[in-house]
C-alpha cells in the first residue's frame, strides 16, 4: 500500500531539515509511533538505524529501519531491514523564501502474505493515512514553534546588546 | 498459539518428551483404562470391545507420540511473518484486541511468560499475544508456547508447531529457556480455559506450581500476562470434569475436563472439539513487570509464597481490566 500526504510549513527547508535530522524529535511529531530508538553507533545520517513501532489495530507494527537517502535539505528516506516491509520518505521543496512543502510518502506491506496481506493493507490504510496527516501537522507546529523561539531569542539578544551598549 | 498449558506434576510425568517412554506409557495407560471401564460398565462383554479399545489406544498413543516429539527448530519465522496479516485481521477486527506494556518483557534474555487462559480450545487471547509479541520483537526472536498434547495431535498441530508451539513438558520448557527463548505457559491449562463463562474474571491455576520451579531452576524471571475478555468469546456452561472422569479421559488423554459449550453454529457442544464461531468479545491483555524470584524472595524462595504473589498480582490486574469493561462481549 502506498500513501502520500503533504503540508506547507512556514519555514525554510533548512529549518525543517534541522528539526528532522534529530532522531529524538521523531517520537514528538510522528503520530502513532510508540518507539523510535537509535540502533547502532550512528545516531543520524545515511546508514543510521532505528527500531520503530507504530500502533495499528491490535498490534504495534514495525521493525528495524535504515536511512538509505540523506540529501540535505531535500530528501530523507528509510527502508526496512527487519519486520514489516516499509519505505518512507520526507521530501522537502521550497515554495517561496519563507515556506516549504513537506511531502511524506509511506509504503508498507508483507511480501508473500497473499490475499490476507492485501486485505490488511487495505483495512489499515485509513489509520495509517490519518497518522501521516497528523504527523505532518505536528511537524509543522513544532518547526514553526522552533522558528518563533529562535527569532525571539535573536531579538532578545539584540535588545540585550543594545542595552549593554 | 493453540492451547499452551500447564507444567503440573502430570505434565512432567506424561509429557516428558521422551519418545519411547511416552509411547509405552500411553499404550499401557489406555489399555488398562479402557479394560477397567468396560469391566465396570458391561461386566463380561470385554472381549471384542476391549480389542477395539486396544486398537484405538494404540492409534491414539502413536498419534500422541508424534505430537510429543517436538523439535524447537520447527518454529518457522518466515511462515509466521507471512501469516501475521491473517492474525492481525482476526484480532483487530473481530476481537478489537489491545495489548499493553509489552515493553515489560526483557528483550535480551530468556523469560517465562505466565498467563491466565481463556476462550476454550480456540484460545483467542493466545493468538493476540502471539501476534503482538512477534510484531513487537520481530519474528527473529525465539518464542515458544507449551500446548496440551491433544492440541498438537489435532489437524492444527503442524501449523501450530510452525508458530513455536511445543508439547507441554519440562524437557521442552528447559530446552527453550536454555536456548534463550521467551516461553509462554498457562498453568491453569485445560482446567482454567474451560471454566464457566461467568467465572471469566477469575485467575484459576488449580494450584499448579510447576512453572515456579521451572523459573527457579532456570534462573529466569516470570512475566505475568493477564488477559480479559477471552472467556466471553465462548459460552462455557460447565467444565464437565465429572464427565471426563466418568469417561476416563483424565487417564487416557490427560484431559481433566469435557466442557459443555454453546458453540455457534452447532448449538450445544460437548468437548469443544468442533470448530465454532467465537463471539466477537473485546480482548485486552496487560503484561506486568518481570518478577525476579531470587531478588524478591531470597536465595531459596518458598514456592507457595511465590504462587500466592503471582496469582494475587494477576487477579488484581484482571479485576482492574474487568472494571474498565462496561458490557459483556462489547467491552
Task: Describe the protein.
The complex is a heterodimer of chains A (165) and B (331). By secondary structure, chain A is an alpha+beta fold. Chain A is built from 3 helices and 7 strands; from the N terminus they run βααββββββα. In chain A, strands 1-7-6-5-4-3-2 form a 7-stranded antiparallel sheet, with helices on one face. In chain A, β6 (85-96) and β7 (99-109) form a beta hairpin. The N and C termini of chain A lie far apart (61 Å). In chain A, 27% of the residues are buried. Chain B has a 7-stranded mixed sheet with strand order 1-10-6-2-5-3-4, sandwiched between helices. In chain B, strands 7-8-9 form a 3-stranded antiparallel sheet, with no helix packed on it. The longest helix of chain B is centred in the first third of the chain and has 24 residues, at 19-42. In chain B, 47% of the residues lie in helices and 13% in strands. Chain B has helices at 9-14, 19-42, 46-68, 77-94, 124-137, 149-153, 157-162, 170-178, 189-193, 210-218, 241-246, 249-253, 293-297, 303-324, and strands spanning 98-100, 111-115, 143-147, 165-167, 182-185, 222-228, 235-238, 260-263, 267-270, 284-287. Mean pLDDT of chain B is 84; it is low at 8-35. Chain B contains 14 helices and 10 strands. In chain B, α2 (19-42) runs antiparallel to α3 (46-68) and α4 (77-94) packs across α5. The chains are: A alpha+beta (165), B alpha/beta (331).
Layout of helices and strands:
The complex is a heterodimer of chains A (165) and B (331).
Chain A lengths: L1 E8 L3 H8 L5 H4 L3 E7 L9 E8 L2 E13 L3 E6 L4 E12 L2 E11 L4 H51 L1
Chain B lengths: L8 H6 L4 H24 L3 H23 L8 H18 L3 E3 L10 E5 L8 H14 L5 E5 L1 H5 L3 H6 L2 E3 L2 H9 L3 E4 L3 H5 L16 H9 L3 E7 L6 E4 L2 H6 L2 H5 L6 E4 L3 E4 L13 E4 L5 H5 L5 H22 L7
Parallel strand pairs in B: 1-10, 2-5, 2-6, 3-4, 3-5
Antiparallel strand pairs in B: 6-10, 7-8, 8-9
Helix pairs in contact in B: 2-3, 4-5
Amino acid at each position: 500500500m502506498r500513501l502520500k500526504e503533504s503540508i506547507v510549513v512556514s519555514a525554510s527547508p533548512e529549518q525543517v531539515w534541522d528539526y528532522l535530522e534529530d532522531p529524538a524529535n521523531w517520537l514528538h511529531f510522528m503520530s502513532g509511533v510508540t518507539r523510535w530508538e537509535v540502533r547502532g553507533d550512528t545516531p543520524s545520517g545515511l546508514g543510521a538505524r532505528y527500531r520503530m513501532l507504530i500502533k495499528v489495530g491490535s498490534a504495534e507494527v514495525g521493525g528495524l529501519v535504515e536511512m538509505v537517502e540523506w540529501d540535505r535539505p531535500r530528501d530523507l528516506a528509510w527502508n526496512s531491514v527487519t519486520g514489516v516491509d516499509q519505505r518512507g520518505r520526507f521530501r522537502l521543496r521550497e515554495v517561496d523564501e519563507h515556506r516549504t512543502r513537506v511531502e511524506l510518502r509511506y509504503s508498507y506491506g508483507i511480501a508473500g502474505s497473499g490475499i490476507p496481506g492485501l486485505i490488511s493493507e487495505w483495512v489499515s490504510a485509513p489509520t495509517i493515512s490519518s497518522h501521516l496527516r497528523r504527523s505532518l501537522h505536528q511537524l509543522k507546529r513544532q518547526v514553526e514553534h522552533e522558528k518563533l523561539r529562535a527569532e525571539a531569542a535573536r531579538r532578545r539578544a539584540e535588545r540585550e546588546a543594545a542595552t549593554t551598549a | 498459539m493453540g492451547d499452551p498449558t500447564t507444567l503440573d506434576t502430570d505434565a512432567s510425568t506424561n509429557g516428558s518428551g521422551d519418545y519411547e517412554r511416552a509411547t509405552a506409557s500411553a499404550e499401557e495407560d489406555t489399555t488398562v483404562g479402557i479394560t477397567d471401564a468396560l469391566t465396570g460398565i458391561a461386566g463380561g462383554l470385554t472381549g471384542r470391545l476391549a480389542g477395539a479399545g486396544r486398537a484405538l489406544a494404540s492409534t491414539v498413543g502413536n498419534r500422541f507420540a508424534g505430537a510429543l516429539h517436538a523439535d524447537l527448530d520447527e518454529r518457522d519465522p518466515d511462515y509466521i511473518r507471512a501469516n501475521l496479516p491473517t492474525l492481525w485481521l482476526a484480532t483487530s477486527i473481530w476481537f478489537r484486541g489491545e495489548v499493553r506494556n509489552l515493553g515489560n518483557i526483557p528483550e535480551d534474555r530468556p523469560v517465562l511468560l505466565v498467563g491466565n487462559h481463556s476462550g476454550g480450545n480456540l484460545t483467542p487471547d493466545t493468538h493476540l499475544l502471539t501476534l503482538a509479541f512477534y510484531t513487537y520483537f520481530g519474528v527473529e526472536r525465539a518464542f515458544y508456547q507449551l500446548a496440551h498434547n491433544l492440541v498438537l495431535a489435532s489437524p492444527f498441530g503442524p501449523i501450530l508447531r510452525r508458530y513455536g508451539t511445543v508439547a507441554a513438558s519440562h524437557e521442552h520448557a528447559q530446552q527453550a529457556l536454555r536456548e534463550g527463548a521467551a516461553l509462554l505457559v498457562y498453568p491453569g491449562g485445560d482446567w482454567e480455559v474451560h471454566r464457566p463463562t461467568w467465572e471469566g474474571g477469575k485467575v484459576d491455576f488449580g494450584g499448579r506450581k510447576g512453572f515456579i520451579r521451572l523459573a527457579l531452576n532456570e534462573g529466569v524471571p516470570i512475566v505475568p500476562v493477564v488477559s480479559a475478555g477471552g472467556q466471553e468469546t465462548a459460552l462455557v456452561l460447565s467444565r464437565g470434569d465429572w464427565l471426563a472422569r466418568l469417561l476416563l479421559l483424565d487417564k487416557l488423554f490427560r484431559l481433566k475436563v469435557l466442557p459443555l459449550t454453546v458453540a455457534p453454529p452447532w448449538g450445544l457442544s460437548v468437548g469443544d472439539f468442533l470448530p465454532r464461531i467465537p463471539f466477537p468479545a473485546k480482548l485486552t491483555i496487560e503484561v506486568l513487570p518481570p518478577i525476579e524470584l531470587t531478588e524478591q524472595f531470597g536465595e531459596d524462595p518458598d514456592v507457595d509464597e511465590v504462587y500466592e504473589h503471582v496469582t494475587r498480582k494477576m487477579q488484581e490486574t484482571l479485576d482492574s481490566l474487568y472494571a474498565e469493561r462496561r458490557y459483556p462481549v462489547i467491552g
